[in-house]
Automatic annotation (TrEMBL):
Belongs to the zinc-containing alcohol dehydrogenase family. GO terms for molecular function: metal ion binding; oxidoreductase activity. Residues 12-289 form the Enoyl reductase (ER) domain. SUPFAM superfamilies: GroES-like (SSF50129), NAD(P)-binding Rossmann-fold domains (SSF51735). This is Enoyl reductase (ER) domain-containing protein. Keywords: Metal-binding, Oxidoreductase, Zinc. It comes from the Bacteria. Its cofactor is Zn(2+). The keyword Oxidoreductase applies.
Length: 326
């Protein structure tokens, strides 16, 4: 069978590629993908150079992507949990942007019957959001700030609401994303540059929020999270950013904050739990996938070059881009 893929031959270059499929290895599931999702922030880091590839265990050239959904095409001889025709998501470290993906059985998950594949494909970003909330370990009625209202931020807002956190305060520099945060269930939405509004909110909350999550990946967002947290509060950094950062250590120290990173691949049990929870929450209609009806693309060479040109420039005018493989 012909394997059609996005291909990165070198840094900053993306193109359409064809090759022959192989049989799955003993512990692998071969998935006939219907959709794969571009994770704009993480894939930007991996696309521009080899610096961030330590988490992937590969280098150029390769097929990128780590979020795909479809049906089982075939299985290796040791696979016991899945059979041909099962509706699944696959979470490979790379190789998802293809009409066929090879995924270890342990990284393959059944999709509930009432969940659409184009919604399920958001599972990896949904997992990141729920993993971050779980890491923060906030309790019913505690307050939370979420800096960054892209896909991960929007799902984190919904997860926080499902957890009974209150109030939920969202921040983003883009008006479109602030509106999306309101729709997702945020109680307050602010521009992170609105310093007067931020100081007023901190005062209203009696010194800040119980937990602050930065999902923006920016230095300003990280420091805003530190500033928003109340004394003895928690700050969680959720990003695939490998760059050096300058943090407001004095405020971190004086408020005796707990600072947490949440690279999901360091805690696989928590990661698997978060993926399963995301699929369950979708099935139970307690959360919804971000709007994406207008951002589904055929994986042509022109579309691949256009979309990764935007990824390269950090151009988020197209949010949640998805490749449709079937």
């Amino acid at each position: 069978m012909l394997r059609k893929s996005v291909y990165w031959p070198s840094a900053g270059v993306a193109e359409y590629h064809e090759s022959e499929t192989r049989e799955p290895k003993d512990d692998e599931v071969l998935i006939a993908n219907h959709y794969s999702l571009i994770s704009q922030s993480s894939e930007h880091s991996w696309f521009i150079n080899d610096k961030a590839h330590v988490v992937l265990g590969t280098t150029f050239p390769f097929i990128p992507g780590y979020s795909a959904s479809g049906y089982v095409e075939s299985v290796g001889k040791n696979v016991t949990k899945f059979k041909v025709g099962d509706k699944v998501i696959g979470a490979p470290v790379f190789g998802a942007h293809s009409n066929f993906a090879y995924v270890d059985e342990i990284n393959t998950y059944a999709v509930p019957e009432n969940v659409k594949l184009d919604d399920a494909v958001f599972y990896n970003l949904g997992m990141t959001a729920l993993f971050t909330l779980d890491k923060a370990a906030l309790r019913l009625g505690q307050s939370i700030a979420i800096i960054g209202a892209g896909v991960v931020g929007q799902i984190a807002i919904q997860g926080a609401k499902a957890d009974g956190l209150h109030p939920i305060i969202a921040f983003d520099i883009q008006e479109q994303r602030r509106q999306a945060a309101k729709k997702a269930g945020a109680d307050y939405v602010l521009d992170p540059n609105d310093s007067d509004g931020i100081e007023s909110l901190i005062q209203q909350l009696g010194g800040g929020v119980d937990g602050a999550l930065d999902v923006s990946g920016s230095n300003a967002g990280m420091n805003l999270a530190i500033h928003l947290a109340r004394p003895l509060g928690k700050v969680v950094f959720c990003t695939a950013n490998n760059d050096d950062q300058t943090l407001h250590y004095g405020e971190l120290f004086i408020k005796n904050l707990t600072l947490l990173g949440d690279f999901v691949n360091t805690e696989m049990n928590r990661q698997h739990k978060a993926i399963s929870n995301f699929l369950w929450l979708l099935s139970a209609k307690k959360i919804v996938a971000p709007a994406h009806e207008d951002t589904i693309y055929e994986p042509t060479d022109d579309n691949i070059k256009m979309l990764y040109g935007k990824v390269l420039k950090h151009d988020n005018t197209i949010n949640n881009p998805i490749f449709k493989w079937r």
